[in-house]
Amino acid sequence: MDLLAFATSLITLGLIYGLLAVGLNVQFGFAGVLNFGYVAFFAVGAFTSALATLPPPGSPAYVEAGAQYALGLDLPWLAGFALAGLAGGLLALVIGLTSVRLRTHYLAVASFAMAEVVRYALSNETWLTRGEFGISGIPQPGHGTYVPTELYAYAYLVGCVAIVGGLVWAVRQASELPFGRLLRAIRDDELAARTLGKRTARTKLQALMIGGALGGLAGSLWTHSLGVVHVGQFVPIVTFQIWLAMLLGGTGNHLGVLIGAFLLIVIREGTRFLDAVPGLSAVAESNPSFVPSLRFVLIGLLLMVVVRFFPHGVRPDRPRTAPAFTGDLPAVAAAQAAQDAVEGPILSVRAVTKRFGGLAAVDGASLDVARGRITGLIGPNGAGKSTLLDLVSGVQRPDAGTVYLNRRPIAALPPEATAQAGLARTFQNPRLFGHLTVWENLMVAGADARSESLATTWLRVAGRRALEHEIAGRAEAVLAFLALSGLRDEPAAHLSGGQRKLLDLGRQMIRRPSLMLLDEPAAGVNRTLANRIFEHIGELNRQGTSFLIVEHEMDLVMRWCDRVIVMHQGGVLAQGTPAEVQRDPAVIEAYLGGGRAA
Amino acid sequence: MKRSLTRALRRTGVLGGLAAVAAAGMLAATAPDARAHDAELEVGLLLPFTGQYAWVGSNVQPVAQMVADEVNQAGGIAGHEIAFVQGDTEGVVDAGTTAAQKLVNVNNVLAIVGPTSLSFSGARQVILQNDVPMVSPTAGTTALDRACRDVCFRTVPSDSLGGRAIARAATDPQYLAGDQATRKPVLMVGNAPAMVSFKQPIARAFDTYGAPVAETITYTPGKPSYRSEVRGALANDPDSIVLVGTPEDTARIMTNAFQAGYQGRWFVTQDQTNSDFIELAGARLVEGIYGLEEVSSDASAERNRAFEQRFRDYAGADPQIFATNTFDAMNVVALAMLRAHLRDGEVTRANLAANIERIANPGAGKITVHDYTAGAKVLRDGGEVNYDGLVGPTDFDAWGNITAPFGIRQVQNGRWTTVSTIAADALN
Amino acid sequence: MDLNAFLQTLVYGLALGGTIAVSAVGLTLSYGVTRFINFAYGEFLTLGAYATLALAGAGLALPLAGAVSVVAVGLAGVAIARLAFDPLMHRGLLPLLVTSVGLAFVLHNMVRMVAGANPLRFPLPLMRPWEVAGVFVPREQVATIAVALVAMALVHLLLSRSLLGKSMRAVADDAALARSAGVAAPRVLAATWFLSAAIGALGGILLAVTQVTLDPAMGWRFLLVVFAAVLLGGIGSPYGAMLGGLIVGLGVELGATYVSADYAYAFAFVLLILVLLARPRGLMGGRT
Fold first, then answer.
1. CA–CA distance, B33 with B40 (Å, rounded to integer)
2. CB-CB: which of A235, A270, A312 is closest to B22?
3. Which of A42, A151, B159, C223 has a C-alpha 20 to 30 A away from that of B411?
4. Residues A346, A221 share a domain
5. Is residue A278, in this structure, part of any structural domain at all?
6. ipTM of this complex
7. For residue range B101-154, what is the model confidence (pLDDT) as tens digits?
8. Where are the membrane-spanning stretches (chain C) (predicted)?
9. Shortest CB distance from A289 goes to which of C97, C116, C231?
């Protein structure tokens, strides 16, 4: 019976830490946010829930307990629980909005510092929190009314199992659907996700808030399980325990992380039995802290060993297997060009300039890309071709000049906005989502904001399935078109160079853009595959997609391009049909004269 | 695919193995415990041994062990020796809870010595629900003044009393060694659980005694220097500074004040009134400061010196903060165990708790004793005892609190010297 | 009076800032070459202070004890890094960060196992301050600032003049390029760890002088302040770290004086967060 009570309290604690670790996992394992101040969410959740449910000052219960706190809202427990989640989520929103520009270390240390500021505030604002006195007598739901005191711990455990189980199930659900897939994509390569039209900042913020809300909810469970709230709980070491739980379990895998939390508690509490080792206490009798300190030496060593030898934890995040597709394959990627009733060039670049330091990479370049055609962009190395693609697609902002897509100015837009305007671009080195499978790469690219929304994830179950099926159909068609079906469950990081190029192209195809900017789609690819890639491009072009292609292989350019633009030293040197360009003396002088003409 | 599966299994195996070892450790440790329980009377030390308050556990355990050795060398309690189990609260609330859980439910300790102010919040449910007698030598917090009956006792007076004693002594020349009464005190309090509870009692008492505190400065504990805080205090031009802090912060603040040219008086709490603090802060710095000590009577000051000598002989070191409180707490526990055994034939949590007041509080025909050996003799001879300790008469009220006269001490020639005693009724 | 009080606070802020600045330089140096922020760095401070105390207790003169400790902790730093960090150098950021947290646990608990949990006094004689125009100038803080200045001047000379310093900067700018240019990366790495740990130990000794007493968690507690200084200045920039240290020292003391003593440390962190909002890479940080 006694052991049972001990086990019960540890399992309850394990569940609470499990919820914390899952929340951290959403923030780090999915959104890639290096949060070293996670304990702050735990803290605000605990205090919010406590203050929301305490009997108000002056009430009989308050007087009887001899309490001294200044605020008690006397709300039902469920309201306190919900408010705790809200408080955690709002704190995450504040942190997310303020720290959005910070990277890795800066974020890690800034979040660490923020948690300490929160702790100082909770410790010093004694009128609200009673500071270092803490508040006891926090109402415990059902205690003494529905559940007798001696059974309460067991009932609370059952409640925790249900609540934590439900929450983890919901989070896991979201993680395996387009929302979570997008998060994992962002973790792998945020810029690539943005060039696919994803509003990554918003998605990351949502993940941050979910993680924060889970921390707040865990705080509520914690404070009501003990019936006290005290700022002394929310020290930095707790953040690192949550990290240890997550790493033990396997970053990215919510169930693993939940197991990790139990491992943490077993190790943390199991090492308390070190003093039962015969003779150990006698080693340094005059130092009573000897054995307790040894315990933390072991925990520290364990942290190091886990990271070094078991970097993926007990339940590593595994590549997902795509569900088999049933139903009719849709036709491949018809561009939406027909919808644009605009005439004239699809893309106009006017006097665009970009400087890096004193060097002008693009220097007053102006050019037009004809609608429904394949335009080649050539020039010697360093002519500014890739930079021009960056400027057009919003990856970088021009210092001067304008860019029009379908007569709409896009030069000031971020990459996700140009992508949504119908533009697609690939990179010279394909920026794939390495941990995602080929199929998932396509699914991320094909999904729209609606299917990735949280409302769709949790509420519109039927609509969600229909959307997912529709996207899966397009993905299947693209796989077939590019002959990649055999690799559908292979992580993108395992692909060969040519396969990567194909997948990058496919990722843009599935979005059905009206204009595709391709940066050396055939570089580093064998002849046969290069030809096949261009055949695909030609096929898409016949269906109405316009192309601007940076390419070094002159025979491919000559064979496939309707028009060719030549860049030299940041400016446009010549443009015209391949034949015209080839005859242009200035071009021959600057470029083709270099002996590279095939 | 298959290889990664085996690898995963192996990985799970190794980590799972680690966990299993830890879990087996737990079980193995509990199994012999069940047997050992017949042989040993286990007392839990629910104290921080790591974390920022690690020094508390370090100070308490050797004194507790000294008393336990005294009991055990005299044959224990009817042949059963007293043994200790550490419950490290780490200075974190939930660690305090799980440590208490382990002591109470796994080790099945008969009594708990501890906890500190911080850990009581997390441990109170476990302690109260299982009716484990708890004697705290360390939790002076006013939060415990009305916290629980029957099982909670403490051998440290509430900070509300200590605070009043400081203010009383500071404002009345009869308690001071030839110094003027304080007219303009400044109060500096560390923002930590063991200290903030002094804040209100001290400030209120100074009001009562007609010398309101010019400014109360709550400072962050553990800072490397307190120059700006000290400057803020000195800006009030105080004639006394009342300082509540950990020994290290106190040493730091006094050093910084010395460097800032402060020449006024200092009043510190029980935590600093020991030779260890003089060593930590340096004798020159603390010369002339006033400190507070719990005593049971004028005569008991001598017993305190005798205790210091005895501890030095035992441990080879000076007794430190909470040493006297621990001495009393352990004697109370040991005598209550003995009485429970002699009268009921067994020692249980319930009869142990019930016996604490019987051996500690005065009554007709009771013989006053000051240590275990003397008390054991009386009890074995069929008499009843009233334990008077180093920190006071150790008479518990209904809430387990003690009241005590306070000794006012001053550092003279590098040693703490008692200059006066404030009777308990002088504080009302 | 008011101006005087302000000047007094400035003097105190500079004294604290000097200690923070020295400690911050050691941390930022190791970041420059290894590209991760070492959470175990605070333990070098603790080790330096305790080693000095132990050697002084064994009869060495305090300055000599300090010098020996600095070298010893430097060597220990190389050994620790070789065991804990080197095998993870190519595994990205997170493993290194987490390992350093684990290492911090191990080291500061080992100090507690050996030296006990009680605070110990740093053996420094007590001195009244100099009084300059009504402003108190603590003598040992003048010594602290002097040592800090000399240490920074040495670091500056080392970085700008010596071959080692140039290789360190080369590796810091581009590890791959430096390697291809024939800079022996492992040697540079070892030298960096030595410097980082040794400077950390020096910072720990200055911290011990400032705070009079030692305890096993002193470095860990001080670490966040050092972080704030390093980030304020911009990670990897030694001169930024010096500047950041002074700003944090001043910020803590000014905040404690003019706003509220119980939020003392919080000012450093709020300052840090505000600066990062305006300049996400710190005051003097150019690169990630």
1. 9
2. A270
3. B159
4. no
5. no
6. 0.90
7. 999 999 999 999 989 888 888 888 889 889 999 999 988 888 788 878 889 999
8. 6-29, 36-58, 64-85, 92-111, 142-159, 188-210, 222-251, 263-280
9. C116
pLDDT at A334: 54
The residues, any chain, with a CB within 8 Å of residue B94's CB and separated by 6 or more, are A13, A222, A226, A233, B122
Residues 55..84 of B with a Cβ closer than 8 Å to C: which? Answer: 55, 57-59
Chain B contact partners (≥3 CB pairs within 8 A): A, C
Cross-chain CB nearest to B22 (options A6, A267, A310): A267
Whether B275 and chain C come into contact, CB under 8 Å, resolves to: no
Report CB contact under 8 Å: B228, C263: no
pLDDT mean over A434-460:
88
Residues A142, A10 within the same domain: yes
Q: Which of A206, A235, A264 is the last residue of a domain?
A: A235
Smallest CA–CA distance from B50 into chain C, residue: C117
Residue A456 lies in a domain: no
The pair of structure tokens assigned to B377 is: 């003799």
The reply to whether residue C265 touches residue A116, judged by beta carbons under 8 angstroms, is yes
Find the CB nearest B11 among A126, A272, A310.
Answer: A310
Q: How many structural domains are present in chain A?
A: 2
| B15/A314 Cβ within 8 A | yes
Nearest to C86 by CA among C43, C44, C47, C38: C38
Which one of A104, A121, A289 has the shortest CB-CB distance to C93?
A104
- Calculate mean pLDDT across residues C185-190: 83
The DSSP string of C221-259 is HHHHHHHHHHHHH-TT-HHHHHHHHHHHHHHHHHHHHHT
CATH of the domain at A546: 3.40.50.300
Neighbouring-strand partners of residue A423:
A515
DSSP secondary structure string, C189-228? HHHHHHHHHHHHHHHHHHHHHHHSEE-TTHHHHHHHHHHH
Residue after which a domain boundary falls, among A220, A235, A250: A235
List CB contacts (< 8 A) between B94 and chain A: 13, 222, 226, 233
Q: Any CB–CB contact under 8 A between C38 and chain A?
A: no
Out of 2.40.160, 3.30.70, 1.10.3470, 3.90.940, the CATH code matching C2-278 is 1.10.3470
DSSP A93-152: HHHHHHHTT--HHHHHHHHHHHHHHHHHHHHH-HHHH-GGG-EE----TTBTTTB-HHHH
The answer to whether position A481 is within a domain reads no
- Residue A124 in contact with residue B191, Cβ under 8 Å? yes
Dump pLDDT digits (tens) for A340-380: 556 788 999 999 999 887 788 898 889 999 988 999 998 88
Residue A202 placed within a domain? yes
Structural domain of A425: 338-436+497-594
Res. C80: pLDDT tops 70: yes
pLDDT of B399 strictly over 80: yes
For residue B402, give the DSSP letter.
B
This model's pTM is above 0.80: yes
Shortest distance, CA C102 to any CA of chain B (angstroms)? 15
pLDDT at C178: 66
- Give the minimum alpha-carbon distance from A18 to chain B in angstroms, rounded to a whole number: 15
Q: Is the pLDDT of residue B300 over 80?
A: no
Q: How many CB pairs under 8 A join A and C?
A: 127
Give phi and psi for B152, each to the nearest 5.
-95, 125
